[in-house]
Design brief:
mainly alpha, 2 strands, globular
Length: 394
């Protein structure tokens, strides 16, 4: 530091330059750099969160019509909170879909994909828990303002329909709205957005394509499907022999158990025969392609191999999301039954009955759940070639 700069520095601190003949002490005073002040003082918590706007959005219709109902504020806030969570879920799903859209998914992204799907699961789990807050409102409390809601309905939530479509719920798999498309309640622009999502490739379709590219189904003479079929046949024969040899099972019970065990055609036929699987797809009995189903089976069977750990957890998280959405729909249906019984919903649907049926019908990843019927004991798993075992390790 040269002399001139040193003098200015000392004067800024409130003292005199030490080179003067008079002894002195530097008097230190707080100094805030103008740039730092600008950087840290322009954003306040209140402003950053736009709280004036946010907290002014609860406009009770009952109060506006001169019949204020205390619990309408809770009703509005609950639904606004749900819409905020829907926005975050869409934010996560859009990012995940973006990572899957490349023909060769970057392996470095898979941990990020998994973490974001787990975040979606946690949010939906929280949404289920939030229903308890709504249930602190009694049916009589709800009736105080219910008539002011017509014809508004949760059925009209654009963001929730976007979530369903982004995940992969197809229009042909949906419950109809009075026999018409679910899009009938949306305007032209909103309908176009929903159609674009459906045609742009859902997460279901992107994951299906990713599974179809699994490289380990054929590996230097090792045919996974042939080895799996042999293991299934051996397992079935072993179970049948154990039932037949038991001295403690009555004949009729043996007959029933043998039917339950079946043979390789009972549960396994559609993965042992491409033609059978494609027939089931045509008839709507399954949706996931044959190659993707075989890949998902391999990942589930050899889940403990390090390279297959993240793919297995990813498939599990998709099932978790499906299950949690089903739980949320069911809990919503139960809450509606508690609040209005068998009355028609404010949007004109059959209320509880409609919501309960969507919980059963609006499942997206049920093919992944059905993989469980194809699993065999670890002790029966085909032994992998040594090199393939190394490839699946670190």
């Amino acid at each position: 530091m040269n002399r001139e700069v040193h003098v200015r520095f000392c004067e800024r601190l409130g003292g005199k330059f030490p080179g003067s003949t008079r002894l002195h002490r530097l008097r230190l005073r707080p100094y805030i750099c103008p740039m730092a002040k600008e950087k840290y003082s322009t954003v306040h918590y209140h402003n950053y969160l736009e709280l004036d706007a946010l907290l002014s959005l609860q406009k009770e219709r009952s109060a506006a019509l001169g019949k204020p109902a205390h619990d309408e504020t809770l009703f509005i806030i609950m639904h606004q909170v749900y819409e905020l969570w829907f926005k975050q879920i869409l934010h996560e799903l859009d990012s995940v879909c973006g990572m899957f859209r490349t023909e060769k998914v970057n392996a470095d992204n898979m941990q990020t994909v998994l973490l974001r799907l787990q975040r979606v699961s946690v949010i939906i789990d929280l949404m289920v828990e939030q229903i308890k807050t709504m249930e602190t409102m009694t049916p009589l409390d709800f009736l105080e303002f219910r008539d002011f809601l017509f014809p508004a309905s949760g059925f009209q939530s654009m963001q929730f329909r976007m979530i369903e479509s982004t995940l992969g719920l197809r229009e042909e798999d949906r419950m109809t709205y009075h026999g018409k498309s679910y899009k009938i309640v949306f305007n032209e622009e909103q309908t176009a957005r929903l159609t674009a999502i459906e045609e742009g490739g859902s997460l279901f379709e992107l994951v299906e394509g990713w599974l179809e590219r699994t490289p380990f189904l054929q590996f230097e003479g090792f045919d996974f499907l042939a080895a799996y079929k042999k293991a299934v046949d051996e397992m079935v024969v072993k179970e049948q022999a154990a039932i037949g040899a038991s001295e403690y099972i009555p004949p009729k019970m043996k007959e029933m158990r043998l039917r339950m065990v079946g043979d390789s055609n009972s549960y396994f036929k559609h993965v042992l025969s491409r033609e059978e699987h494609e027939r089931m797809m045509v008839e709507g009995e399954c949706r996931l392609s044959y190659d993707a189903t075989i890949a998902a089976l391999l990942i589930n069977l050899y889940r403990e191999k390090p390279i297959l750990s993240i793919p297995f957890n990813l498939l599990t998280e998709l099932m978790n999301i499906d299950e949690l959405l089903t739980t949320w729909r069911y809990r919503h249906a139960q809450m509606v039954m508690r609040m209005i019984g068998n009355k028609i919903g404010t949007g004109g649907s059959s209320g509880h009955d409609y919501l309960a049926k969507t919980a059963e019908k609006h499942k997206i990843f049920k093919d992944l759940h059905n993989i469980s019927s194809l699993l065999i004991p670890r002790s029966s798993l085909p032994v992998l070639p040594e090199r393939l075992g190394r490839e699946l390790g670190f």
